Amino acid sequence: MTTTAAMDFDHVELLIGSVESAADANAKAVRNTVLSPRFYTTDFAAMDRLNIDSVRAEWDVMMKEYEGDNNHDHFQRDAQFAEEVKTLMPQLSPEMRQEFLDFLISSLTSEFSGCILYNEVRKNVTNPDIKQLMTYMARDESRHAGFINQSLKDFDLGIDLGQLKRTKSYTFFRPKFIFYATYLSEKIGYARYITIYRQLESHPDKRFHPIFRWFERWCNDEFRHGESFALIMRSQPELLRGINLLWIRFFIVAVYATMYVRDHTRPLLHQAMGFKSTEYDYEVFRITSEIARQVFPVEVDIDHPTFRACMTRLVDLSIANAKAKERGGVMGLWGQATSALGAAWTFGRLYLLPVKRNNLPKDIRVQPAW
Description:
The protein is mostly helical.
């Protein structure tokens, strides 16, 4: 049995922390760590100069889909939702409650991050194509964040989104990095939600919270957002060749590694849904890798033995770092430095693994068929 499979709750609690009050929840959302979702800003002038005429036909079809807004009535809680919350939540163990809260807060922060970025781009560009797209995507992400926040309020742990926007620090990314990272974030978000939805559709007895019933239509928003960035990148072919292939490779590895470590802090959450964290993550990686062939000429080999060994090693190092931080003192600092160096070395091994090459398809759009 690997270390990650045997991880006990004491180690999990070191990584995710305990949330007992609204102040704890808000502090967790604001905090920036290697594993937590971040807020981003970018070069708005460069975004304004984008020209998507080479993909105009597919772009116009997509804009009509956004305009149709097939989820305008979806994010509404019904009477059954309230009844399920009242019935199911008291059944959660304290440990399971903490993992679920961590999942909700992380998911809300990620959704709200997209809302803020898209809204800021909308306000700072005049390019009608980009302005229209960002308006639609900000609308969607706002709904998602608000819907999650309603579930946090069931625990009396609602996040003050206005305060979060004002107090969380922002990371500057050049537009191309925004495209790579956000495309992956949206597509991996789809893969995560649809995998959970399909599992609980087949095993409704494992659906311990009603929010999961909303995931199918919800994740189709995420899928379409990814399609938008795929079209932008395909309209700028220089982003998909030369030295940029190294950047694409970096972001794939970084996004996958972050998800893997974060998910292995929630073994009870996945167990409750009938998953093992490792199996769940590799299914998400598989779906995301299949989808990303629409736009990325390179793909990491998720089945390579070294890839899998390095992922497990990153979880072990994350636990070691959290334990060293809790220990404090000189030995604690030494432990943090050692684990950080180990993580950098392990990430480097992941990055340097051979990649698979993809021929980009003529038809860019992909259907959410998973």
